[in-house]
Specification:
This protein has about 260 residues and is α/β, with parallel strands linked by helices. It is built from 7 helices and 11 strands. Strands 2-1-3-4-11-10-9-6-7 form a 9-stranded mixed beta sheet. A hairpin with a 5-residue loop joins strand 10 and strand 11. Helix 3 packs across helix 4. The longest helix has 11 residues. The radius of gyration is 17 Å and the shape is globular. The chain starts with a strand and ends with a helix.
Length: about 260
């Protein structure tokens, strides 16, 4: 098919839409930024696109809670349209605030449950965290993470601690291959299935249960993650780029996977 079209969904307070559009453009896609009000007015416009990306920022100022207002808008007014979007084989990506938004909907619910199965709450440190973190990919089912085993990406978060509804839900999501991205110490120690153990701060920058940094749905076509892959698409964006040169930014591979899926 022709180059896939990507919808970058904006809302008041979104501030990473330009970076997300740039990343998809570098990967060979055709991004278009649309305000959520335009999509609410014309939900049929979703049919024009192959990928939906909800980028980072502070949608609606993160009033009430991070991502809550935009998540409620989507769940109450676009749930059926987005379910059809997903079931037609298309992709959805939520980055940082976009991950917080997705968790307020049913799009990341585990296969046998409805309603949010996890949430993102205040960091254990009690402050905004911005730093580079190591990440390991824990499952091969996610389209965006295909062929990737580890990455180093930046985070910028105040409500980034991923917490499942309860330990049973965590275990079911883990066994279902949905907990696809974890903070890592880089030590190479294998993780036991269902383990809630955490690596120490700052490797786990927020105290996330089981070091979870990203969750996908049962199809592997919907992904939410706290780190920012769109902020590492060029080698020179890494703070150690002069000492540890690489050809491209590691985050670019995620956007390339999304575009390649349709081409």
């Amino acid at each position: 098919m022709a180059q896939p079209r990507i919808l970058i969904l904006r809302a008041p307070g979104t501030n990473c839409d330009e970076e997300a559009a740039h990343a998809f453009s570098l990967a060979g896609g055709v991004p278009e930024k649309l305000h959520v009000n335009r999509v609410l007015e014309q939900p049929q416009r979703l049919g024009e696109f192959q990928v939906l990306c909800i980028p980072g920022g502070f949608s609606y100022g993160d009033d009430i809670a991070a991502g809550r207002i935009l998540g409620n808008q989507i769940q109450h007014h676009l749930a059926e349209s987005l379910e059809s979007f997903r079931e037609s084989g298309k992709l959805i990506l939520g980055i940082c605030n976009g991950f917080q938004v997705l968790l307020k909907t049913n799009l990341l619910a585990s296969a046998d449950e409805r309603g949010p199965t996890a949430t993102l709450t205040l960091n254990d440190s009690g402050r905004f965290e911005t730093r580079w973190v190591r990440l390991s990919v824990e499952s091969g089912k996610c389209v965006f993470l295909s062929g990737i085993r580890e990455m180093e990406l930046p985070v910028a978060l105040a409500e980034g601690k991923c917490v499942a509804r309860d330990e049973g839900v965590f275990s079911r999501m883990d066994s279902g291959g949905q907990l696809v991205l974890r903070y890592s110490s880089g030590a190479g120690t294998p993780r036991l299935a269902g383990s809630l153990a955490q690596i120490p701060y700052p490797e786990n920058p927020n105290g996330a249960m089981g070091d979870v940094a990203g969750i996908c749905d049962a199809t592997g076509r919907v992904l939410g993650l706290m780190p920012h892959p769109e902020r590492f698409v060029d080698a020179t964006q890494h703070p150690r780029w002069t000492r540890e040169p690489c050809e491209v930014g590691e985050g670019l591979r995620m956007f390339q996977n999304a575009v390649r899926y349709f081409m």
